[in-house]
TrEMBL record:
Cited InterPro entries: Knr4/Smi1-like_dom, Knr4/Smi1-like_sf
Protein name: SMI1/KNR4 family protein
Domain Knr4/Smi1-like intervals: 23-144
Pfam families assigned: SMI1_KNR4 (PF09346)
Origin: domain of life: Bacteria
Lineage: Bacteria, Bacillati, Bacillota, Bacilli, Bacillales
């Protein structure tokens, strides 16, 4: 399960006196959801919100899972590495084709997304944007991405 993988990453980083991001507060999560709805006209999946309430994004071994943007949290935890969901999706949305997806993270050669029209979680090839695989849900997708970061 993805929480076990995060705990493994946490243990590995602790050996080098590096730590993972803390969870995101309910207040910040509510503001974040409102801002995403206003900017992108969709509602974030509850599983993603639950993930953020566990850890506000993660960067490890080439994998980046996006968190709540600093403009929402007012950068309260300046010692944390958070790649913001809103800021990153605004960048990816400069390409009209990519507006069909919610981007939750990326790796060296992959994007981890939700295909809005098809109602399914997918891995896309980063250079081409072609679909690599589908996932049964958000947790399956991040579990796959996190597990691959341990290799």
């Amino acid at each position: 399960m993805w929480t076990d993988t995060i705990e493994e990453i946490k243990a590995r980083r602790a050996k080098r006196d590096r730590f993972l991001n803390s969870s995101c507060s309910t207040t910040h999560l509510e503001r974040f959801q409102e801002e995403v709805t206003k900017l992108f006209n969709y509602k974030l999946p509850k599983e993603y919100i639950e993930f953020l309430s566990y850890i506000n994004g993660i960067e490890y071994n080439g994998l980046v899972l996006y968190g709540v943007d600093g403009k929402i949290t007012n950068d309260e935890n300046t010692n944390q590495e958070v790649t913001g969901y809103i800021e990153t999706n605004e960048i990816w949305y400069e390409n009209e084709h990519q507006k069909a997806y919610m981007f939750f993270g990326d790796g060296n050669i992959s994007w981890y997304c939700y295909d809005i029209k098809r109602d399914i979680y997918v891995e896309l090839d980063k250079p081409s944007g072609s679909q690599v695989q589908e996932f049964q849900g958000f947790y399956h997708m991040i579990d796959y991405a996190l597990s691959n970061s341990l290799i």
